[in-house]
Amino acid sequence: EPEVTQTPSHQVTQMGQEVILRCVPISNHLYFYWYRQILGQKVEFLVSFYNNEISEKSEIFDDQFSVERPDGSNFTLKIRSTKLEDSAMYFCASSVGRGRNEKLFFGSGTQLSVL
Amino acid sequence: GQQVMQIPQYQHVQEGEDFTTYCNSSTTLSNIQWYKQRPGGHPVFLIQLVKSGEVKKQKRLTFQFGEAKKNSSLHITATQTTDVGTYFCSITGANNLFFGTGTRLTVIP
């Protein structure tokens, strides 16, 4: 079965450094998402992306965050200057379409630790 | 943004006991989805409910959507150790999916 792949599985960085988290969505999917989950808490929406544009973003997704689809397969999340509170599991997801009847397929996540 | 609350937050059951988690919204929902996240894993889609009063079954799992489409429940009959994990209800927007607070299920062998 096709799956969303994320790299790296773990990322350790110093506060203030830039990180790029990478995702390869399922090939025929058109909508892409980033979520994060702080340990033991719920899964929080960050941003959705379609047709090379942000469709929607949450209040968490401030100017420190950006997303990009640099080529036909990768979808990246960049955090420009990491803070301690950015430490979390970051999940990429994709869906065939958008809207109320679409189910999301999640990657295995990147565990980001900011020291 | 929209919020859905789930209760209980945690549930410990003996293997073989039943388990139910409830999801409540203050607003009427167009649909609701359920996801399961195994410990250390990622959310995996279980099911979607759309119609008022809808009931769907997947083996030992029974999902219900309330008549007013403001609440939903997931019931597991005769839990097994493979059922451990966190169960999230979620609501879909035009461009996103909002997760509920989740219920973490522990099954004691």
List the helices and strands and how they pair.
The complex is a heterodimer of chains A (115) and B (109).
Chain A: E1 5-7, E2 10-13, E3 19-24, E4 31-37, E5 44-50, E6 53-57, E7 65-68, E8 75-79, E9 88-95, E10 105-106, E11 110-114
Parallel strand pairs in A: 2-11
Antiparallel strand pairs in A: 1-3, 3-8, 4-5, 4-9, 5-6, 7-8, 9-10, 9-11
Chain B: E1 4-7, E2 10-14, E3 19-25, E4 32-37, E5 43-49, E6 55-58, E7 61-65, E8 71-76, E9 85-92, E10 97-99, E11 103-108
Parallel strand pairs in B: 2-11
Antiparallel strand pairs in B: 1-3, 3-8, 4-5, 4-9, 6-7, 7-8, 9-10, 9-11
Give an overview in words.
The complex is a heterodimer of chains A (115) and B (109). Chain A is an all-beta fold. In chain A, strand 5 and strand 6 form a beta hairpin. The mean pLDDT of chain A is 94. The model of chain B has no long low-confidence stretch (mean pLDDT 94). In chain B, the strands form two sheets. In chain B, strands 2, 4, 5, 9, 10 and 11 form a six-stranded mixed beta sheet that branches. Chain B is globular. Chains A and B meet through strand 4, strand 5 and strand 10 of A and strand 5 and strand 10 of B.
Rg calculated over all Cα atoms of chain A: 13 Å
Helix and strand succession of chain B? EEEEEEEEEEE
Shape of chain A: globular
Annotation field: number of helices of chain B:
0
Overall helicity of chain A: under 10%
What is the SS-derived class of chain A? Answer: mainly beta
Beta content of chain B comes to over 45%
Share of residues in strands of chain A? over 45%
